[in-house]
Amino acid sequence: MKVKNIAKTIVFCMIFLFLLNRIYAIFSWKDTAGDYTSSMEVFYGLEENVVDVLFLGSSHSYCSTIPAQLWEDYGMASFSMAISGQDLVSSYYSFVEALETQDLKVVCVDLFGCVLQGYQDEGNLYRNLLPRKLSMTSVEAVNSMVETDNKADFLLKWPIIHTRYKELKKQDFVAMNPVYLGYTAEFVAEGAAKLDFGEVTPKPIDEKEQEFLIKMIGLAQESGTELVFVLAPYQIPLFEQEMIAYAKEIIAEYNVPVLDLEEISEEIGLDWKEDMIDYGHTNHWGAQKVTAYLGEYLNKHYELPDHRGDNRYAMWELDLKARKHEEINYYLTKVCDMQTYFEELSRLEDYTIVISTNGEYISETADMADCLQMLGGFHEYYDGNNVWVFDNGENIYTANGNGALKTLPLTYGELLVIVSEQSTNVLVDSVACQISTDGVNVIVYDNILGSVVDSVGFEAMNAYRMIR
After folding, report:
1. Which tens digits make up the pLDDT trace of 141-154?
2. CA distance 262 to 268
3. What is the mean pLDDT of residues 245-274?
4. Is-contact 468 455, C-beta < 8 A?
């Protein structure tokens, strides 16, 4: 009888832990950078000893360093564990944690962390602590970073995240997109200006930041890891320039290199008006210039292996494809000419394209017919309400106006096609995507990034004017 009771207890505990783990995955803190993807969580999923170059720091770092570009140019296996608001204390513990599974060759640390003084923004504290696995390292991180009396909440996590039921979204219930090595692309150019105060007087940084600056240098020496401090270009106010100058003096005492890219912004070709999202961050074009300089520096000064062609690094190839898709998607959404738009569609790979005709669709219109033919599969046309679905250039489904209800799987969701005598409706993950009620609609779904990147309508009664 005792054996049965013990067995029941074990089974109950296993089921309880499974359910608790599943519920936690739903309620857990999701970093908004990377579309609900946390670089820390992705890092935990990596194989051991695949990362050679690690980037640590704040949004200044993850907005300016592109692992995919380093992979494409040099075959460098780099990864960014940068997180919004990450100070030198958090960078240090991320360094410690990374060394537990990775044989790091070089660690590049965001020097902006030296001007921070703890975490006035509680959200940044959550981002830097909650994704960490429970370990002695995470316990030490909490003790060092949390200055209030609720340190246990950051270790247990449930006291903090249990109220997230009020803000849950569909993304919380689906698998995380693993195509993320820590870089966040921004295609906005609001510009900034370089501030020049001449020679500045160094001013002391926060005592804790100074302590962990020195500890980080010591950790690099102990582990045999090369350390580089990097200051990404941003509009630096005087008081921050003074603290950065102070930190540089400390770093110089240990003969650790500092790459001040704000100081040499002209040398790297940075255009402050076109290459900045705002006063504090580079956009994608600025990041390309920063990464090009960093890649050349790292390739010149350190012996880093070229892993291209190695199957263990398939994730880097996939990340490169994903980053190229981000560029393609940005430029596609800027096209406003029907002919050019369909030409671009005909060249896409790893996309699902849905064409639907609705209402007063005029199939005999030569220009539209020619455009549709670019995609292939349009051997005949039908007046009225119709849908064609293309996956990676192949016509995989057609509904010809006589009624249809079809669900098709997508990378991270599903496509629902509804065709009746009155109308067509195309929904992606229960969201209607059609624009025009009378004419031709195009929905472009990125199979790599797992999202709708464009929805366009062409109005039949208005010379197929293109609308979004």
Report:
1. 999 999 888 888 88
2. 9
3. 97
4. yes
Q: Please name the amino acid found at residue 115.
A: V
What is each CA distance from 49 to 23, 78, 175, 327, 353, in whole angstroms?
A: 31, 11, 25, 30, 39
Rounded CA-CA distance 232/221 in Å is 24
pLDDT at position 462 is 84
- Which distant-in-sequence residues (6+ apart) come within 8 Å of 244 by Cβ? 111, 114, 115, 231, 236
Provide the token pair at 97.
């944690």
Measured at the alpha carbon of residue 402, what is the angle toward residues 397 and 406, in degrees to the nearest 5?
40
Tell the residue number behind the tokens 């902006």, with chain if given: 112
The pLDDT value recorded for residue 32 is 44
| 3-state DSSP of 21-40 | HHHHHHHCCCCCCCCCCCHH
* Burial (CB count within 10 angstroms: exposed 0-12, middle 13-18, buried 19+), residue 167: exposed
pLDDT at 154: 84
Check if the beta carbon of residue 202 is closer than 8 Å to that of residue 238.
no
| Cα gap 288→275, rounded to integer Å | 9
**Which tokens is 116 given?**
């921070």
Residue 410 bridge partners (DSSP): 413
**Gap between the Cα atoms of 307 and 422, Å rounded:** 56
pLDDT band at 34 (very low <50, low <70, confident <90, very high): very low
Taking only Cα atoms into account, the Rg of the chain, rounded to an integer number of angstroms, comes to 26
- Confidence class for position 59, pLDDT limits 50, 70, 90: very high
User: Which pLDDT value is given to residue 157?
Assistant: 79
- Per-residue pLDDT at 361: 64
Residue 429, Ramachandran bin (φ over 0: left; ψ between -120 and 50: alpha; else beta) = left
Query: 53 and 105 in contact (C-beta within 8 Å)?
Result: yes
| Cα–Cα distance for residue pair 212/435, rounded to 1 Å | 54
Q: What are phi and psi of 144, to 5 degrees?
A: -85, -30
Strands (E) across 87-166 are located at: 106-110
Q: What is the pLDDT of residues 299-337, one digit of tens each?
A: 999 999 999 999 999 999 999 999 999 999 999 999 999
CA-CA-CA-CA torsion sign (437, 440, 445, 446): negative
Tokens of 311: 């199957």
What CA dihedral angle connects 119, 124, 125 and 127, to 10 degrees?
-160
Measured CA to CA, the distance from residue 272 to residue 446 in angstroms comes to 31
- In whole angstroms, give the CA distance from residue 115 to residue 120: 13
